[in-house]
Specification:
By secondary structure, the protein is an alpha+beta fold. The protein contains four helices and four strands; from the N terminus they run H-E-H-E-E-H-H-E. It is globular, with a radius of gyration of 24 Å. The chain starts with a helix and ends with a strand.
Length: 135
Amino acid sequence: MLRILCASTLAACAIGLAGCSTCPSSQTAPAPRPALISHIVLISLHDTGDIPSLIADSDRLLPFIPGVVAYAAGQHIDTGRPSVLTDYHVGLYIGFASVQDYAVYVDHPNHVELVETWRPRIASLRVWDVLDETP
């Protein structure tokens, strides 16, 4: 009987401890800010078949520009939320640590090449620049 009681106690402890190790931990610090300046571009293309090529060209050219500290490129994702805009095909995010870095980006040959190559294939383009001075 004592053997069964010990085995049951050990099993209960093991299950209890395993359950605790899978509990999500509380986030104790805020998520890091990606950049001081966030440059967000939403692009609609004339031909949706060009989406992978635009993303590939962006990946090849933009993240290597000096001063770019954060970068992402991808296509629209349907989350099923009615409040989310769906009128674009490709989104770009480029982060900078300073206004000077942003100015370098605008005139850099890689950026100019991307804009000149893709301008004829773009149906619409919307740009947001956000300054986040939160420490």
